[in-house]
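Design job #97: recover the sequence.
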């Protein structure tokens, strides 16, 4: 009886670490990739600042994000957005291993200090569109992925949002403005993007890394007409 209990205890104690070193860790031994709950909690912490409804996790959005990430793993740093996405999209590339979902979403949320709600623009040519997408009050669902880039080229994070935020000339908390967070494209493309300039470290990013910029993020804008018909997630299987 005693031996059985001991054996059971040993099994119980050893199972988590066994699982940790096989299924959760990556093949190269680095720390586990981020979980949905971690992405979600980090988002809702930022939305709570403004008393907004919680986002819910959506598996179709998560799959969309994962599929796009998988196509970018050879070339993470260029932070290319998925073309004509019906969803909002926040991207992040970070070279170092300390980046995880909480860190990345908190970094995006930190752009709050760059957003001017009176004029609806990012201050001093900084980027604030990741933050405004997170707190866009009509956005209801999110799905993200944390992927490892090929050739040890760091970590790629992709979050998709539905309905999309950063609607041209609108603000995250409603209203119409003459300025916008992400400006419409000059051609007739369906969306335009805003990225930090890798070669010109400005704003809060410069505080986080010292000399070289080893992380960067990008976000996306959408025309207003994409907003009303909420994309029917059940139609994508
Ligand atoms: C937050 O939302 C709740 C429920 O809608 C409301 O009762 C409360 O007054 C709001 N608080 C603020 C600070 O807006
Ligand atoms: C959002 O979710 C958190 C954690 O589950 C919960 O504590 C909080 O009350 C929720 N907020 C709203 C506005 O529903
Ligand atoms: C994410 O990274 C931060 C900083 O390294 C760490 O404090 C936190 O525990 C990490 N979160 C998870 C879920 O591993
Ligand atoms: C924006 O730039 C001006 C002039 O360079 C500076 O005084 C101000 O503090 C900056 N604001 C922010 C939020 O960085
Ligand atoms: C978003 O904010 C605007 C302006 O306050 C409000 O009219 C609208 O009802 C809000 N929408 C949601 C879904 O919270
Ligand atoms: C606008 O879109 C049409 C149809 O897709 C294309 O033929 C045209 O070249 C585009 N115009 C510009 C300025 O990109």
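Job complete. Output follows.
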């Amino acid at each position: 009886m005693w031996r059985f209990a001991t054996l059971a205890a040993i099994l119980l104690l050893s199972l988590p670490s066994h699982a940790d070193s096989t299924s959760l860790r990556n093949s190269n031994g680095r720390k586990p990739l981020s979980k949905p709950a971690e992405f979600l909690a980090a988002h809702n912490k930022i939305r709570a600042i403004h008393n907004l409804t919680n986002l819910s996790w959506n598996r179709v959005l998560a799959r969309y994000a994962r599929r796009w990430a998988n196509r970018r793993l050879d070339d993470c740093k260029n932070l290319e957005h998925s073309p004509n996405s019906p969803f909002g999209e926040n991207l992040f590339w970070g070279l170092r291993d300390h980046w995880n979902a909480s860190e990345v979403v908190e970094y995006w949320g930190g752009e709050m200090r760059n957003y001017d709600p009176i004029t609806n623009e990012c201050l001093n040519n900084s980027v604030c569109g990741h933050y405004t997408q997170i707190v866009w009050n009509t956005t209801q669902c999110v799905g993200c992925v944390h992927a490892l880039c090929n050739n040890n080229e760091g970590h790629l994070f992709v979050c998709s949002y539905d309905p999309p935020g950063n609607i041209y000339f609108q603000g995250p908390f409603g209203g119409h403005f003459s300025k916008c967070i992400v400006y419409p494209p000059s051609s007739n493309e369906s969306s335009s993007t805003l990225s930090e300039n890798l070669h010109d470290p400005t704003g809060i990013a410069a505080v986080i890394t010292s000399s070289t910029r080893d992380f960067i993020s990008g976000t996306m804008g959408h025309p207003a007409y994409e907003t009303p018909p909420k994309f029917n997630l059940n139609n994508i299987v």
